[in-house]
Design goal:
It holds the Pfam family LRR_1. The chain is mostly beta strands. Among the domains are: 1-210, Leucine-rich repeat, LRR (right-handed beta-alpha superhelix); 679-751, Leucine-rich repeat, LRR (right-handed beta-alpha superhelix) (Alpha-Beta Horseshoe), CATH 3.80.10.10. Helix content is 5%, strand content 21%. The strands form nine sheets. It has a 32-stranded mixed β-sheet, with helices on one face. Strands 46-48-50-52 form a four-stranded parallel β-sheet, with no helix packed on it.
């Protein structure tokens, strides 16, 4: 492999994803290039991704504008390598490049605008190789091995054209005073993240057009001088101990985004944010050592919309600390701090416009709904991973909260009061997973007209009363998995969801032995896997037969499937009963499942199937019967189906089921008969299944294969014959498989 470390592997994944995305979105399909078939071409584009070339390929006879050669073995760009090309963008990511000859880009001097040299082996900025470029505005040199910037570095024409430069993820320890000032009339975006810088010369302030600067994850103890009109600044991941004093040199109304996260800032002083902050909308202070915030820290003239205080030692906020931010603050995050007591805590004003509030991973133990009226526009509240033991309603009958998304998982709630959430008419998503709720009573969740998602997973619920979930007309997901249910009845659901909504009910990973139906319940997807069911509950599925599309009952103890046990589920598309103890499947078990496309009853103990077992399943495409005890397949078992993927591996079949497979000969594409007892294949055995693309006969008892065994399978792409002891003329055996791309002969022995 070309890539030798984790960073390069990530680059490979990113580049491949980008390539696939570009190919998917492009108006014309990618085709192999005429002169370089391992590369892909379309109008004005050429792409060579992960092609192990050591020199540039032959160029197609088209006017290329965009060229991508990534993850190859290229080391040098020679002067003649790109002759005649007039590219606009050139991507040379994740190669082994370390040198560019002086006039390598001369043919594209007046056309190349974007050059990506990331993830290579450059040890310095290849300025001599860039000297001919007259219109380049975007240059990426991230993830190379650049340790220093030469004092005699010249940018040539780039002094007037280069607007964006990335030197991130190198080994740079210093920048020469003149290395950037020569770009002062053009450079607008500079990234020097993840280097080893501890100092920058004051001349950085002379780069007057610079608007976006990231010096994150270096070794600064104090901030360097800054250009006066900077708009976004990141000094995250350094060793700053205070808000940088150099911010005072920034013009009022300039900076909008400031990231000082993961430093060593311990205090925020009054009047810390002065005239320079009059346009500041986002300030990130997470991962510092701030313990408290006093009043008047944030001035009235600062129109901040987002403040992130997460991962600090914060335990106290002055009641008036946000009082100057009334009308502007929308987002406040304080995850993993040291708050405790009841929520919300006391404050006078300043949060009236707050729409997003995150205080997860703190130590709150009481949620007081009445006090939430002080946050009239709050839409999102995250209190995951606290110590909440109760939600107090008090006299809350006249309140109405705007919360749409409420996260209360990983707490210590043991009981849900009736009407707890009725004061949130806009509630869409409610997460109560990983608490200690033991039972649910009538009307625990009712009249929530906008609720889409409700999770009660991973509690200790053992019972649900009748009419627990009532009048939830838009519910899409109800998660009850990983509780202590032994019995579940649909009577707990009343006026839930709608036939036009895909409603998923997850009751998996419980101890359910009994499922009871009720009146019609519009369930679309039911996951009842990992329970203790010993039979398929007929009356249960009759309550949803006009809506159900997927049934998952795997990992139970079901012993047989009776006739018509799933009712007339006309829209059922997926049925999964693998990993049960099924030994008998009645002939009419699936008769009325006319929309069934995927059926999985693998890992059971089925010994035989009936004639025309699947004959009414005209849409069946995917059938898994592996890991059973089948000895043969009846003649018309697949009659009237459209099976494309058939897995019968790990059974006891000794005769190739040629007659049964002829019923699906025109549709069958994937056939797995591995780990059976098949001894013989004659010349005509695949005559009726000639459209196969993949055939697995691994670990059978094959002894003889004639020259023409696979002669009917001209389109076959994958063939596995491993683990057999075969006598054959191997020179001729694969002669009729011109499209074969994968052949496995592991543990294959020639007689």
């Amino acid at each position: 492999m070309v890539l030798g470390d984790e960073g390069r592997r990530r680059a490979l994944q990113a580049a491949l994803a980008t390539c696939l995305l570009v190919g998917a979105l492009s108006p014309e399909p990618l085709e192999p290039c005429a002169r370089s078939p391992l590369c892909s071409c379309r109008a004005a584009h050429m792409s060579c991704i992960a092609v192990p070339i050591h020199r540039f390929p032959e160029w197609p006879r088209i006017e290329l504008q965009h060229l991508d050669i990534s993850m190859s073995n290229l080391e040098i760009i020679a002067e003649s390598a790109l002759d005649g090309l007039h590219l606009q963008t050139l991507v040379l990511v994740a190669n082994r490049l370390h040198h560019i000859e002086t006039h390598a880009f001369s043919s594209m001097a007046n056309s190349l605008a974007s050059l990506d040299l990331g993830y290579n082996d450059f040890t310095e900025v290849p300025h001599q190789g860039l000297k001919d470029l007259k219109v380049l505005n975007w240059l990426n040199l991230q993830n190379n091995n650049i340790a220093h910037i030469r004092s005699d570095l010249k940018w040539y024409h780039l002094e007037d054209t280069l607007t964006s430069l990335s030197l991130s993820n190198n080994q740079i320890t210093e920048l020469n005073e003149k290395s950037l000032t020569s770009l002062k009339n053009s450079l607008e975006h500079l990234e020097v993240e993840h280097n080893k810088l501890s100092y920058l010369p004051d001349s950085l302030a002379q780069v007057v057009r610079l608007r976006h600067l990231s010096l994150a994850y270096n070794q600064f103890e104090v901030s360097p001088s800054l250009p006066s009109r900077i708009q976004t600044l990141s000094l995250a991941g350094n060793f700053l101990t205070a808000i940088p004093s150099t911010l005072h040199d920034i013009e009022a109304g300039s900076i909008r985004y400031l990231d000082l996260s993961y430093n060593r800032i311990s205090t925020l002083n009054t009047n810390e944010f002065r005239e320079w902050s009059t346009s500041l909308s986002t300030i990130i202070l997470k991962g510092n050592r701030i313990a408290h915030i006093s009043n008047n820290v944030f001035p009235a003239q600062m129109p901040v919309k987002e403040i992130n205080l997460s991962f600090n030692d914060l335990y106290y906020l002055h009641p008036e600390c946000f009082s100057n931010l009334t009308g502007s603050l929308n987002i406040l995050e304080s995850s993993s701090t040291l708050f405790s007591g009841h929520f919300p805590f006391d404050f006078d004003e300043g949060l009236e416009k707050l729409s997003w509030l995150s205080f997860d991973n703190n130590d709150f133990y009481i949620l007081k709904l009445l006090d939430m009226v002080a946050l009239p526009e709050l839409k999102y509240l995250n209190l995951d991973n606290n110590r909440l033991i109760d939600i107090i309603l008090e006299d809350s009958y006249n309140i109405s909260l705007a919360i749409a998304n409420l996260r209360l998982s990983y707490n210590f709630l043991s009981y849900i009061h009736n009407s707890t959430f009725n004061y949130m008419p806009d509630l869409r998503n409610l997460d109560l997973s990983y608490n200690r709720i033991s039972n649910l009573t009538k009307n625990s969740f009712y009249n929530l007209s906008n609720l889409r998602y409700l999770s009660l997973a991973n509690n200790i619920i053992s019972s649900v009363d009748e009419d627990t979930f009532v009048n939830l007309p838009k519910l899409e997901v109800l998660e009850l998995q990983s509780n202590n249910f032994t019995y579940f009845s649909l009577s707990s659901l009343k006026n839930i969801s709608d036939v036009h909504i895909t409603f998923t009910l997850n009751i998996s990973h419980n101890q359910i032995r009994i499922l009871k139906g009720y009146s019609f319940t519009p369930i679309s997807i039911l996951d009842g896997s990992y329970n203790g069911l010993t039979e398929v509950p007929n009356n249960f599925f009759s309550s949803m037969e006009s809506s159900i599309r997927q049934i998952i009952l795997s990992h139970n103890k079901i012993s047989h499937i009776p006739n018509d046990v799933f009712g007339e589920s006309l829209f059922l598309e997926i049925l999964d009963v693998h990993k049960n103890k099924i030994s008998v499947i009645k002939r009419k078990a699936f008769t009325r499942l006319k929309s069934l496309q995927i059926l999985d009853f693998s890992y059971n103990g089925v010994t035989q199937l009936s004639v025309e077992q699947f004959c009414n399943l005209s849409k069946l495409k995917y059938l898994k019967m592996d890991h059973n005890n089948l000895r043969l397949l009846p003649r018309d078992v697949f009659k009237n189906t459209r099976i494309e993927h058939l897995d019968i591996s790990y059974n006891e079949i000794s005769l190739f089921p040629v007659t049964a497979l002829s019923q699906v000969g025109f549709t069958l594409r994937y056939l797995d008969l591995s780990h059976n007892r098949i001894e013989y294949l004659d010349n005509n055995i695949f005559r009726n299944t000639q459209f196969l693309l993949s055939l697995n006969l691994r670990n059978n008892l094959l002894t003889v294969l004639s020259d023409n065994t696979f002669s009917s399978l001209g389109g076959l792409r994958r063939l596995d014959l491993g683990g057999n002891v075969v006598k054959a003329n191997f020179k001729e055996l694969f002669h009729n498989l011109p499209n074969l791309r994968y052949l496995n002969l592991a543990n294959f022995q020639r007689d």
